[in-house]
Design brief:
about 10% strand, about 110 residues, alpha+beta, three-stranded antiparallel sheet, ArsR family transcriptional regulator, elongated, Arc Repressor Mutant, subunit A
Length: about 110
Amino acid sequence: MAKHDPDLSALFHALSDPTRRAILSRLAEGPAAVTELAEPTGLRLPTVMRHLSVLEEAGLIATTKEGRVRSCAMVPEALAPMRTWLDEQRAIWEARLDRLDDYVTNLMKERAK
């Protein structure tokens, strides 16, 4: 049975929604107020707050509140576990494809004889 990392699952879950990905893309440019993040989505503020909550629980954003204004900032280092996992998967599949390529090349050589 495969070993599952709950932090990695939370990251993938947070990034599985296009609205949350759009919010992160915006936050990659710099911190923003929640109302600014909500504008382009066309969603009501409580719905945007739920999306922000998912991103915050995954560690992808940090929020602060000054007076009545809640601001969000991206935490780019939170993507590191995901990048590590993807790099591991890439290495596994590249090795498999290299072995397949060697097998097919040898098979073609055998048939050519």
